[in-house]
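dude i think i finally got it to work??
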Amino acid sequence: MRQTHPEYIYKEATLNPTNPRNRATDWEPDIIQQFRNNRGTREIVGEQNTPTGKSLYLARPVAIKDANCIACHDTADMAPASMIKLHGRANGFGWKLNEIVGSQVVPVPFSVPLATDPVLYLPGPVFYLPTRRHQGTAIKDWAGQETQGRRLSEARADW
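look at this
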């Protein structure tokens, strides 16, 4: 996907990431805070102005649901040496069970589909982006449905 559509991005934006490249930037902390303030929210779909133009995005919360995650993300002293060697001792610690630490974010720039097809279907289980013919229609998310039997989090390897 990245080779044919480098303008599409998948990111696990995190407030306190282990890997600094996953740090939430720009508008992403606001999305994460919305998930933290509204714990029942399963996804957020919206528009965002970016340096490259307007984008539509789909976001889902990343919550620590597995107690095994705490073994690596509680304190740097408890983390595996290989993790510390790779990412250092400064980030990705202090996480708590059931805490929302980030968001899976997929922004799609308006410019790409508006310049090509009237409706763009992204490969894999993501969503379709309405274009001129569908102005006023929101992103139609089908990632959580039965599409190819995979969730967005399982599809990230394709991105």
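Confidence is low (pLDDT under 50) at residues 120-159.
im so relieved honestly
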